């Protein structure tokens, strides 16, 4: 069967924060597919917990390209940004490689920017939190420019009201709650319609 929607990325793509009884995660991908009229057997989600942009290149991108889907969703980068070993040059190069590579064959590609994750991380000293927020702001500025350049659809996680609503986030403060995942699916669907 042909794949009509393929998602790549980290735990945000995986659906963490929206657990199912069988131990898997639901997330925003199934409700988005449903709203776009894409059957479950036409969806592949390669999102993986703790994945970085390099992990997506090393373990997810080849499968995605071989699927030759008309629609790709990418949510990755948060794990890069919070690491003490963050390499801005590699991060930017990887994002360009992922987003640009998926769109080369005429597929539609969509992604997100990053909400205030540093504001939700526990145990940070004020100076650390401020430095991480500056890093996230620079990454969002880059993502805005990159998606405009490549024609990638970007859902704005910085200024959307759901980012500021505690009910939209799970107990860890970093992954969307079930309601948050549904809201993100609705936001993507609106942008893609």
From TrEMBL:
Chain segments annotated as coiled-coil in the UniProt record: none
Domain SGNH hydrolase-type esterase span(s) in chain numbering: 8-183
UniProt superkingdom: Bacteria
Annotated Pfam families: Lipase_GDSL_2
Gene3D superfamilies in the record: SGNH hydrolase
Protein name as it appears in the record: Lysophospholipase L1-like esterase
